[in-house]
Design brief:
alpha/beta; Stationary-phase Survival Protein Sure Homolog, Chain: A; 9-stranded mixed beta sheet; two-stranded antiparallel sheet; 6 helices; 25% helix; 27% strand
Amino acid sequence: MSRPLILLSNDDGIRARGLRALEEALADLGDLLVVAPDQERSGIGHAISLHAPLRAEPHGPGRFAVSGTPCDCVYLGVLHLAPRKPALVVSGVNHGFNLGADVFYSGTLAAAVEGVLRGVPSIAVSTGSLEHRPFQDEDFVTAACIARRLAAGVLAHDMPPSTVLSVNVPAGRPPLGVRWTRLGHRHYRDQVEVRSDLRDKVYYWIGGPATGYGDIEGSDGVLVGQGYASVTPLDLDLTHERMLASPPPFQLDEPVGA
């Protein structure tokens, strides 16, 4: 019986320390195929390259560097580069948390989401520092060890369809434990900086630093802030069921053009 094929990707690039940590941690669980961007693609979300060619350059045995987005990497990996359908996609270990609304911007999450869209159970793994200290190799190793435990569980028991596991591990010290969490609210200082270049042309920097994690009990940000690693199951069905069951009194039944 053949070993399961595990597809690894990320948004920090083929040379990222977090990716290497994942490779080492998951090597005994199955055959690994690494398909990652050729350079950092953080914050690119679920962008896909429909109007540009892609190149996949070998980067060692079973490793490919792709000239595209994390979504491109998983799409190309599952549908073309993989010798058989992967049993699991694992994305990360990201250099920074992906908490709350970060999941809508994160390339790390996008790679995992693309795996689920291709019919493959997927996990996204991130680590961040609560003290704003530089990342150490052991931070990625700790997160990768937690990812290995989850990967082994998913391979043995599978997951519900349309589900992604988003994992966040605090860096700097071993987590107090691993907890199931709900998606919370990560707060940022919203800002737009207006600057001028050397030719007096105006340009902009958008986005400010994180300012907190909200206070939703049992949320990813709250538990991570307390020193736990969080595992948040995300459902790709974004339908607002309560609104569908009790819709607002909009006059949708009026004739078009009335």
